[in-house]
Amino acid sequence: MWFIFLSKVLQLYVTLSDRHNREYIIALVGQDVILPCKAPNNNQTIAAVEWSRPGLDQEFVLLYRDERFDVDNQHPSYKNRVDPQDKEMKDGDFSLVLKDVKKNDTGKYECYVLQGEITSRTVYLDVFSPGEFVLRVQFVLFVALCFVLLLSRISLH
């Protein structure tokens, strides 16, 4: 019963970012996630948008060039599972919606936008099964509680 409740509570995924233009996304198996990629809105023609993943050889997660999406060079595991968040790709938004995430979707994703100049973005996706996620959260809470107790003992002496 608690598993169903927790899976409903965790319908939202967690996104963290750092100062080096990298995003960290934590999601549960089966969720849809948005892999963010923004480029300056400079009203220049979009020559290409490439979403890739190191280790996929020559195939892409999603490739846009010559004013169309190139599905011939798309990796089979991403066919019918990815779409641009904004299909018109206006206002510099080249974010990618990845549907029904799977455990093996975990890893590094790279977005490159060629629009006069090249803009790049790196996204790290970590996908957990609900039970695995609960165990990690419980462990983090346990460590935090131990740390607080340790600090309170130190401050008492």
TrEMBL record:
Domain of life of the source: Eukaryota
Record GO cellular component, one term: external side of plasma membrane
Pfam families: V-set
GO biological process, one term: regulation of T cell activation
Matching InterPro entries: Ig-like_dom (IPR007110), Ig-like_dom_sf (IPR036179), Ig-like_fold (IPR013783), Ig_sub (IPR003599), Ig_V-set (IPR013106), IgSF_BTN/MOG (IPR050504)
Statement: the UniProt record of this protein carries the keyword Membrane: yes
Signal peptide annotation: 1-17
Compartments reported by the entry: Membrane
GO molecular function, one term: signaling receptor binding
Sections of the chain in a coiled coil: none
Domain Ig-like: 30-124
Sequence intervals crossing the membrane: 133-151
Keywords on record: Immunoglobulin domain, Membrane, Signal, Transmembrane, Transmembrane helix
Name by which UniProt lists this protein: Ig-like domain-containing protein
Source organism of this protein record: Acanthochromis polyacanthus
